[in-house]
């Protein structure tokens, strides 16, 4: 008999300054450093200068090594370019999944069309740690168009869930991850209810992007809150009252030592120093945006 998970902690977002850009952060916090394998969750809403070039706006080139930064596009269009030659625009409802591996430089900018229309980008970015054995693999970028993302529906047809990574029932996500994950992106059109079966022993979180939900055995959760569940239990029951959007993020814990310095996440101080040196020496490639 599977049981409902209990809530361990609820984290409302708080605003941080990221190089002059205000970003909402739910993870890490002073009390919760990580929810293994999840390291960071940011929620951003960016406006742009209408008459400026898109290539000079948004987030410019920066490096990563040792984990996967994953971007969920809630609204708008994000133009990804990287030092491996990937150059791709993802739209509302789509995901940009990059395993930084041994090192990559990328930029995240609005599309020119978005700037011309004076629209905004809204996104959630999640950092997923990579197992030590995969940290120095070749980097790779994955993108799945909206129409190719597997979906399933609540019995009342009010909640649509997209399977981004992992397996759910008979469905298999298109993204190939570096560790065992289950990532769902759910949208409710109105009052609805869905019970989600989650993998046993996985860390599990739920982030409310917009709208509020009710969790069985807990109660109301407002928008822009991260719910961290206890490891015991295999399911969660979500009730929606109105139009709502939320992410369910589950992963097998890696249980490895982490050393992080800015955009590099490794297993020792020595590896961090090597990452900084390799970046300065140009070993993570060069990104020339055009």
Automatic annotation (TrEMBL):
Domain Pirin N-terminal as annotated: residue spans: 24-128
Taxonomic placement: Bacteria, Pseudomonadati, Bacteroidota, Flavobacteriia, Flavobacteriales
Alphabetized InterPro entries for the sequence: Pirin, Pirin_C_dom, Pirin_N_dom, RmlC-like_jellyroll, RmlC_Cupin_sf
Signal peptide range: none
Sequence similarity: Belongs to the pirin family.
Protein name: Pirin family protein
Limits of the Pirin C-terminal domain: 194-285
């Amino acid at each position: 008999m599977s049981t409902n998970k209990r809530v361990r902690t609820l984290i409302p977002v708080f605003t941080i300054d990221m190089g002059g850009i205000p970003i909402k952060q739910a993870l890490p916090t002073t009390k919760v450093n990580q929810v293994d394998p999840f390291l960071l969750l940011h929620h951003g809403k960016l406006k742009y200068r209408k008459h400026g070039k898109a290539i000079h706006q948004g987030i410019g080139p920066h490096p990563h090594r040792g984990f996967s930064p994953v971007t969920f596009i809630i609204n708008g269009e994000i133009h990804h370019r990287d030092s491996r030659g990937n150059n791709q625009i993802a739209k509302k409802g789509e995901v940009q999944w990059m395993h930084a591996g041994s090192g990559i430089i990328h930029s995240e900018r609005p599309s020119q069309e978005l700037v011309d229309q004076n629209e905004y980008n809204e996104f959630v970015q999640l950092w997923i740690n990579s197992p030590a054995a995969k940290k120095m693999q070749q980097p790779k970028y994955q993108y799945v168009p909206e129409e190719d993302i597997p979906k399933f529906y609540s019995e009342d047809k009010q909640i649509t869930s997209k399977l981004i990574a992992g397996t759910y029932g008979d469905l298999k996500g298109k993204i190939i991850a570096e560790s065992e994950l289950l990532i769902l992106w759910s949208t409710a059109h109105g009052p609805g209810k869905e019970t989600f079966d989650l993998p046993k022993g996985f860390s599990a979180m739920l982030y409310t992007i917009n709208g509020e939900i009710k969790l069985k055995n807990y109660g109301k959760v407002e928008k822009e809150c991260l719910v961290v569940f206890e490891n015991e239990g295999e399911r969660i029951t979500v009730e929606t009252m109105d139009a709502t959007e939320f992410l369910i993020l589950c992963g097998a814990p890696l249980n490895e030592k982490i050393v992080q310095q800015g955009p590099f996440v490794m297993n020792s101080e020595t590896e961090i120093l090597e990452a900084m040196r390799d970046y300065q020496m140009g070993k993570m490639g060069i990104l020339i945006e055009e």
